[in-house]
Specification:
By secondary structure, the protein is of the alpha+beta class. It has 2 domains: about 55 residues, Arc Repressor Mutant, subunit A, CATH 1.10.10.10; about 110 residues, Beta Polymerase, domain 2. The strands form 2 sheets. Strands 6-5-4-7 form a 4-stranded mixed β-sheet, sandwiched between helices. The protein has a 3-stranded antiparallel β-sheet with strand order 1-3-2. A hairpin with a 2-residue loop joins strand 2 and strand 3. It is elongated. The model has no long low-confidence stretch (mean pLDDT about 90).
Length: about 180
């Protein structure tokens, strides 16, 4: 899964096999096996240059969108947010990814845009983002606000918030119902 977490958010970037090993911290043999399997499956493309093999996510793969969503909802960021929000009092009302990464217009430099409506401790939130950055090697552009502030911006017809609400998104914490409850 860590190989997918690293490669899926980076459409357009070729990863050298040893580079993946160094970034993920996983031994050579399991990385190689995962790359061979993912390439045979069709999720990754391979190119060879000399004796080096490079891999890149295959955006034309039939289930690319589903796998991208799975990565985001789990090891890409969702698990990190949910893990820090665990306990009896949930502090994240909703969290979702939107923007170029979801619409398919991303580049290797495009940050992942996150909207999080929460009352979570800043240290816990920052730790979740830092872990996701480490695992994905992507930057996150975070828009955070409390539920009351979110509701006020909706009531004020804030164009930024309204465009985010209407944009395609992948929910990481909560779902459409949680978002609708805030409107």
């Amino acid at each position: 899964m860590m190989v997918m977490t690293l490669t899926v958010p980076h459409y357009g970037r070729w990863f050298y096999q040893r580079e993946i090993q160094m970034i993920t911290g996983i031994a050579y043999t399991p990385v190689r096996a995962a790359l061979i399997d993912l390439e045979a499956f069709g999720l990754l493309k391979k190119r060879t240059h000399g004796n080096r093999q490079y891999y890149m996510v295959n955006k034309d793969f039939l289930m690319y969108e589903e796998y991208r969503s799975i990565v985001l909802k789990t090891t890409g960021l969702g698990d990190h947010l949910r893990w820090r929000d665990r306990g009896t009092q949930k502090k994240i009302a909703t969290a979702f990814v939107y923007g170029a990464f979801i619409s398919g217009d991303e580049t290797t430099e495009t940050p992942i845009q996150l909207c999080c409506v929460d009352t979570m401790d800043n240290v816990l939130f920052d730790d979740a983002i830092a872990t996701a950055v480490k695992h994905t090697e992507k930057e996150f552009d975070c828009l955070r606000m409390t539920p009351d502030h979110f509701k006020q911006r909706v009531a004020d017809r804030d164009e930024t918030i309204l465009s985010i609400i209407n944009a395609p998104k992948v929910h990481l914490v909560g779902n459409k119902k949680n978002l609708a409850a805030l409107l």
